[in-house]
Amino acid sequence: MNNSITMKLNADELILQALREDISSEDVTTNAVMRGPQKGEAQLICKQDGVLAGLFVFRRVFELLDETVSVAFHFTDGDRVKKGDLIGTVTGDIRAILSGERTALNFLQRMSGIATYTNSIASLLEGSKVKLLDTRKTTPNMRIFEKYSVKIGGGYNHRYNLSDGVLLKDNHIGAAGGVKEAIQMAKEYAPFVRKIEIECETLEMVQEAVEAGADIIMLDNMTVEEMQKAIAAIDKRAEIECSGNVTRENIEHYISLGVDYISSGALTHSAPVMDISLKNLHTV
User: Fold this and answer.
1) Residue of 131, 137, 195, 229 with catalytic role
2) Rounded to two decimals, what is the model's pTM?
3) Residue 87: which domain range?
4) What's residue 1's pLDDT?
């Protein structure tokens, strides 16, 4: 997935939904204190160290409210910033700045938080061949933004959605009647260009998946010892992903195993937001 193109194709609709959620009829507070247009300027200030993601989305919030608003940034997505850094300046009608502030910051803080958290884990994998993957454990209607942020932070995207790839999980296996049956059905139905991945929780399932011709085997919630045995059993006949409660605190246990991928839902569902503020609004 080309994240930049996909973002541009989908961002406006989702940003507008967020704005409509925050402004159902009018911004009563802003309209009370600003009865007419007045040009102003505000500073976007970093309140903690981190990695930026979502500057384009931040700017777009204001542009959709008032196309005359401009945002000048001193950094780009992927840049590291420190507490106190001036990230950029927003200039335009004060009414648009006030009404868009919270929505714009919500996007930027959330996306930068994911990029920062992802980067802190991806840095632990530097020097290895292991790729850090996200999951579908994303905030509803925020997936495009959150998966983009993972990429900015140095991670990689797993399948984007259910249409994007075959991943046979425990309930799919149960529905099909077993590992072998699930893989056989997937091979018969899915386009030949699709790899088939299957989630395995036991060594017996791993052996059956290898024999059935799975392309990728996910070792789910296994102990390190169990994963070592599973990797030996696979013997390079399939790519290997490990998953299950992987976090920054325990990822070091997985690095030396020789897996191809480590996936972590925590990248999107547990990343803290980054503290960023829009301050010092004044007329110009």
Assistant:
1) 137
2) 0.94
3) 3-121+272-283
4) 44
